Each structure stands twice: as structure tokens, then as C-alpha cells.
């Protein structure tokens, strides 16, 4: 297809074809943005989980928290939520597990950001294309009627040409829908795998933190001056 043919179909498609092309570009933009956002999420989270786990196995909770705070991994917020709960005296029972699971759920929602656009484009693009085709066919028959009223022959060749050109919009709508659905399913599968890995990391983290919680005692600094001794009185 030459550039002249492409411009010809763009002119015939009008607003409908412009909307479909915009949806295609939007789907690509969302895919690129999510791909960059999820880049190395699993690897960075696993590395942080190993680092935090090593510190906890040695009983060094402070070093484990420092490692989580200094990390830029997505899972760092999950670990910090657990340490915060432990510091507030929630190392036992369901409090610690609930705090970690809550933060992990919020992180999962953040990773799904903008994916609804892919689902929406994939579901609506075929109907937008069909609407453009119906509008094009209606225009073709309208032009045929005007030609007959003007004394023309009203041959079917012009109508068939108009219909074939109108069907291009439906074809584009299907292609855009396929693009969006493929990208949506890819990210859904990838996020399912990432969420599973994060859940396993969180469960292991909670177990280690619970084991060490009984042995950890908060360090307090006594600011009260020592009582004067008899010799210093």
C-alpha cells in the first residue's frame, strides 16, 4: 500500500479512523510505560528479599530495615510496612501479616495502573470500526440515491467501491482490538507471576520476622540523670 493509498483511506475514514489510530497509539504508549515500570521488578524484589532474609537470620533487624529503606525495589514498601508494625508492638498474631498483606495489595494495584485502557480499547475498537463501516455504507447508498435523482445511471460499481472502502475501517478496528487484547493479556499474565513471587517473599518475610520478634527488644535511651551517690553529695 502506497502513501497515497494510505492518505486516501485516512480521508475516507474520517473521525472514526482517526479515533482508531489514536487508540492504537494510546495502547502502545500504555504498554511502553508499563513495560518500563515493571522492568526488573521480580529480580530486584528477590535480591532485596534475600538481603533482608540474611540480616533477619542473623538476628539483625536494624540492618534488615536499613537494607529495605535504602533499596529502590518495589517490594521495599512491603518490608518497611512489616518493620513499622513490629516497632509498634505487632510482631505476634495477625497484625504483622495483615500489615504486610495490605501493603502488598496496594502495590499490586499500583502495578496494574493504566491497564484498564488496554482492556477498554480491545473491547470497543471493533464496534468503533463497525460504526465507521455502517456510516460509510450509508453514505454510499445516499450518494447512489442522489446520483439517480440527478439522472445518473446509479450503477452498482460506485456503491461497491464505497462499501469496500468503508470496510477498511472495520479491518482497522479489528487490528487495533487484537493489538490491545494481546498487550492486555501479556501484562495480566506477567503481573500474576510478579504478584505470586511477591506473595511468597512476603510470607517468608513474615515468618522470619515473627521468629525474631520474640528475641528482639527495643533499645531505649534513658535520659534521666543518674542519682547522686553519697560520695558526690
**End-to-end gap:** 102 Å
The average pLDDT is: 80
Please state the overall shape, judged from the principal axes of the Cα atoms.
Answer: rod-shaped
Q: Pairing-aware structural class of the strands and helices?
A: mainly alpha
Query: Helicity level, as a percent range?
Result: over 70%
Poorly predicted regions are 215-233
User: What Rg, in angstroms, do the CA atoms define?
Assistant: 31 Å
Q: How many strands in all?
A: 0
Tally of individual domains: 1
Strand content: under 5%
Describe the structure.
The chain is mostly helical and 233 residues long. The protein has one domain. It has helices spanning 3-37, 41-57, 61-70, 76-87, 95-111, 115-149, 156-213. The radius of gyration is 31 Å and the shape is rod-shaped.
Task: Furnish the topology, listing elements before pairings.
Elements: H1 3-37, H2 41-57, H3 61-70, H4 76-87, H5 95-111, H6 115-149, H7 156-213
Amino acid at each position: 500500500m502506497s502513501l497515497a493509498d494510505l492518505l486516501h483511506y485516512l480521508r475516507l475514514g474520517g473521525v472514526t479512523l482517526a479515533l482508531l489510530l489514536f487508540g492504537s497509539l494510546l495502547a502502545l504508549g500504555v504498554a511502553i510505560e508499563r513495560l518500563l515500570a515493571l522492568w526488573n521488578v521480580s529480580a530486584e524484589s528477590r535480591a532485596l528479599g534475600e538481603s533482608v532474609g540474611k540480616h533477619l537470620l542473623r538476628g539483625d533487624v536494624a540492618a534488615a530495615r536499613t537494607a529495605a529503606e535504602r533499596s529502590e525495589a518495589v517490594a521495599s514498601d512491603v518490608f518497611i510496612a512489616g518493620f513499622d508494625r513490629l516497632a509498634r508492638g505487632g510482631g505476634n498474631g495477625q497484625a504483622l501479616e495483615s500489615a504486610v498483606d495490605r501493603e502488598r495489595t496496594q502495590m499490586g494495584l499500583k502495578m496494574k495502573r493504566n491497564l484498564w485502557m488496554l482492556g477498554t480499547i480491545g473491547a470497543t475498537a471493533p464496534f468503533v470500526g463497525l460504526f465507521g463501516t455502517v456510516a460509510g455504507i450509508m453514505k454510499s447508498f445516499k450518494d447512489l440515491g442522489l446520483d439517480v435523482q440527478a439522472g445518473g445511471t446509479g450503477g452498482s460499481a460506485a456503491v461497491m467501491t464505497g462499501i469496500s472502502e468503508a470496510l477498511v475501517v472495520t479491518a482497522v478496528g479489528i487490528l487495533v482490538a487484537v493489538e490491545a487484547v494481546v498487550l492486555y493479556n501479556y501484562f495480566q499474565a506477567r503481573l500474576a507471576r510478579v504478584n505470586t513471587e511477591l506473595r511468597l517473599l512476603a510470607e517468608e518475610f513474615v515468618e522470619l520476622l515473627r521468629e525474631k520478634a520474640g528475641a528482639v527488644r527495643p533499645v531505649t535511651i534513658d535520659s534521666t540523670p543518674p542519682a547522686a551517690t553519697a560520695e558526690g553529695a
